[in-house]
Design a protein that fits this description.
By secondary structure, this protein is mainly α. The chain has 2 domains: 43 residues, no CATH class; 31 residues. It is 55% helix and 11% strand. The protein is built from 2 helices and 2 strands; from the N terminus they run αββα. A two-stranded antiparallel ribbon has the order 1-2. The chain is elongated. The N and C termini lie far apart (52 Å). The structure holds zinc ion (ZN). Zinc ion (ZN) binds next to loops.
Length: 75
């Protein structure tokens, strides 16, 4: 799986990626080490984690609704 870095700027060091991140001045951007090329890229990791939070929220609500239904059946 090497499609991850296609079209992305690869920084060989973390320091280089940090410098590039400062240059873009985008607070929604973060740096991460690429598992396929072992280089560093800039990406929107904060947005991705926000998305993951949302999924967790939905799952929690679903679990709560299920628990409520079970209670209703028992009582
Ligand atoms: Zn890469």
């Amino acid at each position: 799986m090497s499609h991850q870095c296609k079209g992305k700027v690869r920084h060989p060091t973390r320091q280089g990626a940090i410098i590039a991140l400062r240059r873009v001045k985008n607070i929604a951007m973060d740096i991460y080490q690429c598992p396929s090329c072992k280089g560093w890229h800039l990406g929107r990791t904060r947005e991705a984690s926000r998305c993951a939070d949302r999924i967790t929220q939905v799952l929690d609500r679903h679990a709560a609704a299920l628990a409520k239904r079970m209670e209703g059946r028992n009582g």
